[in-house]
Design goal:
Length: 342
């Protein structure tokens, strides 16, 4: 099993990263802020424009350390990776399956079952723990509807457009009830609608940032097991977009949602952690982004039991494990793709 290593997040927008021996040096305004050994890193994510030295980039490629470049506002820019893993046979099968409506819908259905199931589990957890503080009847109605959708996906065949429609309806129903499950700080994290580019309120800001990090990790996981992150089963191909990462994300989004709910309900993120720009875009403050990334890394280190593998793993390995299971299914090593069910 792959070992979960550390991720280095560099949040200072005017920082420059260089190689010194076997360490990454973080430099700001010509001053050395610190050095971090490369041997225990699996990813370096920098939120700035000054960049990375060619020597460090070459070393990261050689050592298979992901280099991810984000804007200071948290929008994905680029990712640098080393040589492509896997073999041509696996990718040729993936390309054929992507062109096959039957195979695409089979995999997409399982991923959506994972998403709907995990979303329902989030709702049931809130109902179990906070039944005196939420509308029990309306929450049970949502749970019932999600169970019906799961049964439909298990027993009926759908086309890709129909699956996207089902996914959209389930997401709308899910987010419509979010305000019931936010138990504290409702004035700050009141949910109106899902806004992405740009996020227009603190809740959308924290969700968008979380999903961006998850997408980068899913992309890296897919390529690490030899799959092409641009060749897709559910969302359909789009030039320049790693759409298979969006597919893989679907069943993992509720895991991130649960993390976001915890940050809000436990007051780990508050109103002062956000700023609003003139155009209405809501972003993390610099201090808040650092705090969030620290909490994100702690969340990834939590040990869970994977229901299919029957093994204990770090939560941060979930993208890698699911990508590995997808590759095994495409190679014919297992009979079906097993989505992650929390």
């Amino acid at each position: 099993m792959k070992k979960l290593l550390n991720s280095l997040y560099v949040t200072m927008s005017n920082s420059y990263l260089s190689l010194k021996g076997s360490n990454v040096s973080i430099i700001q305004d010509g001053e050395l802020l610190g050095r971090v050994p490369l041997h225990n890193l699996e990813m370096i994510c920098t939120f700035g424009y000054q960049g990375v030295s060619p020597a460090l980039m070459e070393r990261c490629v050689k050592d298979q350390i992901e280099l991810v470049f984000m804007t200071p506002q948290g929008r994905f820019q680029a990712r640098v990776t080393g040589p492509v893993n896997g073999n041509v046979t696996l990718r040729k099968i993936q390309y054929r399956w992507s062109d096959s409506e039957e195979k695409s819908t089979e995999i997409a259905s399982m991923m959506l079952i994972g998403k709907v199931y995990n979303s329902r589990k989030n709702i049931e957890r809130v109902l179990r723990d906070h039944s005196l503080r939420i509308d029990v009847e309306k929450t049970n109605q949502v749970i019932k509807r999600f169970k019906e959708v799961e049964q439909l996906l298990l027993t009926k065949e759908f086309g890709l457009e129909e699956l996207l429609g089902i996914e959209g309806q389930a997401a709308t129903l899910y987010f419509r009830r979010w305000n019931d499950w936010i138990l504290n700080q409702k004035d700050t994290f009141y949910f109106k609608e899902r806004t992405r580019r740009p996020p227009l309120d603190p809740l959308n800001a924290i969700l968008s940032f979380s999903y961006t990090l998850l997408a980068a990790e899913c992309s890296a996981a897919l390529e690490a097991v030899g799959l092409d992150a641009y060749v897709v089963f559910l969302h359909r191909d789009r030039p320049g977009r790693q759409s298979l990462a969006l597919d893989l994300m679907e069943e993992l989004r509720p895991i991130v949602d649960r993390f976001v709910m915890k940050l809000i309900n436990q007051r780990q993120m508050t109103k002062k952690d956000f700023m609003t720009q003139e155009n209405g875009t809501v972003l993390f403050t610099d201090d808040a982004r650092r705090k969030f990334l620290k909490l994100w890394q702690e969340e990834k280190n939590e040990v869970i039991r994977h229901p299919y593998l029957k093994e204990k793993i770090n939560k941060g390995l979930l993208p890698h494990v699911q990508a590995l299971l997808l590759a095994r299914y495409i190679r014919g090593d297992i009979d079906a793709y097993p989505p992650y069910l929390q």
